[in-house]
Design brief:
The protein is of the alpha/beta class. It folds into 2 domains: about 20-75 and about 125-175, 3-Layer(aba) Sandwich (Rossmann fold), CATH 3.40.50.850; about 80-120, no CATH class. It contains 3 helices and 6 strands, in the order βααββαβββ. The protein has helices at about 25-30, 50-55, 95-100, and strands at about 20-25, 60-70, 85-90, 105-110, 115-120, 145-150. A 3-stranded parallel beta sheet has the order 1-2-6, with no helix packed on it. The radius of gyration is 19 Å and the shape is globular.
């Protein structure tokens, strides 16, 4: 991971202060089954934590500090282990038989019983609510005023954005801060 330090001579008044949003620095993404160091990029997310902690030494500079957390229920639709719970849409890439054979990271067209169809990547179980994998990494300094935003907590949709779920139906509350 290449991180450059850039010094800026900028004067910012209190009314112009900005937010710092820290995205998903959770155990499952750092040392768990979705650790970034095991991805094709081979970047280790733990390397960014000292940089973020350095920024947090200036926490008074930020009007608000927000930390997002992937926060999935055990029955989340994007989990590969739950693919048998949901029916596949006949017009999609997978039919009922093939959905059972879908592999991790395949994109499946799924139908939750009372919702419309949509496509989802089938992920390993991760960041399950109140689990070790969903906890923030131990090296992240959280001894400052901050707001936690949970995303992906609706079992029917994923949320790659810190603002909305992937279906655009539920906001995370970040817009209201």
């Amino acid at each position: 991971m290449i991180i450059e330090t850039i010094e800026l001579n900028v004067t910012i008044s209190k009314k112009d202060r900005i937010a710092l949003i820290i995205i998903d620095l959770q155990n499952d993404f750092i040392c768990g089954n979705l650790a970034t160091k095991n991805s094709s990029s081979k970047q280790d997310a733990v390397e960014i934590i000292p940089k973020i902690n350095s920024l947090l030494l200036y926490s008074d500079f930020f009007k608000r500090i927000v930390i997002t957390k992937d926060w999935h229920p055990k029955n989340h639709i994007s989990f590969h282990s739950n693919r048998h719970i949901y029916s596949s849409f006949n017009g999609g890439r997978f039919n009922k038989i093939k959905i059972e054979k879908a592999k991790l990271f395949d994109c499946a067209t799924l139908k939750f019983p009372e919702t419309t169809t949509f496509s989802s990547i089938l992920w390993p179980d991760h960041c399950i609510q109140n689990s070790y994998g969903a906890e923030l990494h131990k090296d992240l300094n959280t001894n400052y005023p901050h707001t936690i935003i949970h995303k992906g907590s609706n079992p029917k949709s994923d949320s790659y954005s810190a603002f909305w779920d992937n279906n655009g139906e539920n906001d995370t509350g970040l817009n209201n801060l």
